[in-house]
């Protein structure tokens, strides 16, 4: 006789990456690794590989709302993870969906560029994210280039970007690793003035889907009831391990190994 699952459900509103390195596949794998159940709702389709993105198409808002509504009506959503939205209209669509989930933690991964540098949305999407979605998010997880876009500070430091963005959001995790430093510094900023730094060894190479992996793992840890600083540490530690064990199946970036071989 089957017994009801006790795994927390995380609604993922993200794009589809046909290479399997980023997007919804990354969300699903990372959430399984946290002991959660992923409920993936597609926001956009992309044409990309492990090298770069060449095109994308944002889905019609009615399709995205219908997917999310089906999940919300059937499953007890414990957290929401946002990935690629791709348009201002999709930002408004997510706001409408979140009105149906009051009090549910929202992790916003502001996907504005692919790992290879290709754009995954027009410039105004970053502004809409900052003004409309960050205020309803629990935490955002931009890397430094994304934080600079959101803060409109092309050469801003992590501290400068955080100062500009914290009036819009309660917590902000700006990830490092985009320079040539030997040690990566990831900084968690909170509106109350607290700050936590999480350092890790820099790994060689470049990676496709590391941001999706981190944000999904963090959403999973919050869905499990972990407090924010320890959830951030758990998600960062998990992500670092997936990068340490990453593989290169294609001609471009490494793909994080989010599931251990013995789970396959």
From TrEMBL:
- Give the keywords, sorted: Kinase, Transferase
Q: Which GO terms describe its molecular function?
A: hydroxymethylpyrimidine kinase activity; phosphomethylpyrimidine kinase activity
Give the pathway annotation: Cofactor biosynthesis; thiamine diphosphate biosynthesis
Which E.C. number(s) belong to this protein?
2.7.1.49
Top enzyme class, one word, equals transferase
Q: Which SUPFAM superfamilies match?
A: Ribokinase-like
Assigned GO CC terms: cytosol
A GO BP term, please?
thiamine biosynthetic process
All copies of domain Pyridoxamine kinase/Phosphomethylpyrimidine kinase, residue ranges: 17-253
* Taxonomic superkingdom: Bacteria
Please give the name of this protein.
hydroxymethylpyrimidine kinase
- Origin species, per record, is Stutzerimonas nosocomialis
